[in-house]
Amino acid sequence: MSPSNIPTTMRAAIAHRVGEPLSIEQVPVPTPAPGEILIEVLACGICHSDLHAVDGDWGTPPLMPLIPGHEVAGRVAACGDGVTHLQPGQLVGVAWMFWSCGTCEWCLAGMETICPSTESTGFSKAGGYAEYLVAPAAFVATLPESVDPVAIAPILCAGVTTYRGLKRTGLRPGQWLAVLGVGGLGHLAVQYAVAMGLRVVALDVDPDKLALATSLGASAVVNSRETDPVAAVRELLGGTHGSIVTAAAPIAFEQAVGLLRPGGTAVYIGLPGNDRDTISASISRLVNDEITVRGSNVGTRLDLQEAVDFALRGQVAATVRQVTLDDVNDVFADMRAGRIVGRAVLTPR
Ligand code: NAD
Ligand code: ZN
Ligand code: ZN
User: Fold this and answer.
1) How many whole angstroms from 103 Cα to the centroid of ligand 2?
2) For a designed S-S bond to 240, which of 121, 158, 159, 176 qualifies (C-beta 3.0 to 4.6 A apart)?
3) What are phi and psi of 126, to 5 degrees?
């Protein structure tokens, strides 16, 4: 696509006030600044974080009105000044981490995910619920021409986030992992874990999610609504070596510690709907059993490229419900009710 083919306006789904439905509007196509690219959105996954953002769960988003969306697969439409490694026509992916400073102690240490100056796609910067968005060229993932944009979109947040979270458990092949929450993130966590040689017990409150987990390679499942999951996992396996929480319900975070074997590691990924939620844990259990609890926030650019590579090799594949821009409010309603199995992905055209 040459710049002359780029329209001046585009359709976008916009949040004007927290807690209100998004409205579909015609707005100007953004212009890439130096170092940025303009991307034609081919597909954008709908992450639960988008719902937290528009519901104001983490306060009012820094950018309001807001175009959400941070699982963007698209095609470079135009390059801003100074962009040399990308060309119009190439396929790229945009994730939550829109930009990080590159100079703070965390960026220098390869932990750009916790850069205090970071900008976030679809939160502090306009995201992918639109026909176009801009992103810094240095922060997009490059994708091969053969990739299916709808299929790859969920990898760009749900995939990379769970991939990094799994690495942060420190588990070895053959060990047991509990995945608490088999939603958009969790159903990919099951697959990355299986691909890494781990054995998975999946926990959710919905039988359809558990059936999906079994079909994706989980060796055991537990319905946390019907059974005490801590007792069930301890009875079944004597506890697990690691656990990752991709549910948003605060109780799952305590269960993820409770169901560990001595020496186990719990990795927290899910974000509750209330910023002030806390957990309680037995100090003597943490000390005597040498339990580790870690947070995990999205993924670095290297994590992103590695997570995408698993999908390109066919080792992980999102279960996708394809929708349009006009369906966004219905998808949010389904997400609030826990009715989405896998990931909803919108195509803006
Ligand atoms: P989702 O709505 O697709 O999935 C959530 C799943 O949790 C559903 O399957 C639901 O049935 C299940 N669940 C609800 N209560 C449960 C319970 N008590 N026990 C077990 N399972 C339960 O959401 P998603 O898009 O997968 O996102 C999940 C969470 O991860 C959100 O809070 C999101 O904001 C967060 N997130 C964090 C990061 C990060 O970097 N840390 C990145 C992306 C998303
Ligand atoms: Zn930084
Ligand atoms: Zn996300």
Assistant:
1) 5
2) 176
3) -60, 140
323 CB-near residues (< 8 Å, 6+ apart) = 46, 330, 331, 344, 345, 346, 347
Task: Render pLDDT for 58-86 as a digit per residue (tens, 0 to 9).
Answer: 999 999 999 999 999 999 999 999 999 99
CATH code for 159-295? 3.40.50.720
Query: 167-170 long-range contacts, Cβ below 8 Å, gap at least 24?
Result: 167/303, 168/265, 168/267, 168/294, 168/296, 169/241, 169/242, 169/243, 169/244, 169/265, 169/267, 170/242, 170/265
Chain mean pLDDT for the chain: 97
Please give the CATH number for the structural domain made up of 3-156+299-347. Answer: 3.90.180.10
Residues with CB under 5 A from ligand 3 (ion): 47, 49, 157
- The residue extents of the domains of the chain are 3-156+299-347, 159-295
Q: What does the pLDDT read at residue 3? A: 64
Q: Say if residue 2's pLDDT is above 60.
A: no
C-alpha 177/C-alpha 241 separation (Å) is 6
DSSP lists the bridge partners of residue 119 as 99
Q: How many whole angstroms from 202 Cα to the centroid of ligand 1? A: 13
Give the position, in ligand 1's atom list, of the atom nearest the Cα of 340: 3
Amino acid sitting at position 29: V
Residue 273, classed as helix, strand or coil, is coil
**Residues less than 5 Å from ion ligand 2, measured at CB:** 100-101, 104, 107, 115
- Quote the pLDDT of residue 154: 99
Cβ–ligand 1 contact at 46 (below 6 Å): no
pTM: 0.98
Atom of ligand 1 nearest to the CA of 272: 32
Asked if residue 212 has its Cβ within 6 Å of ligand 1, the reply is no
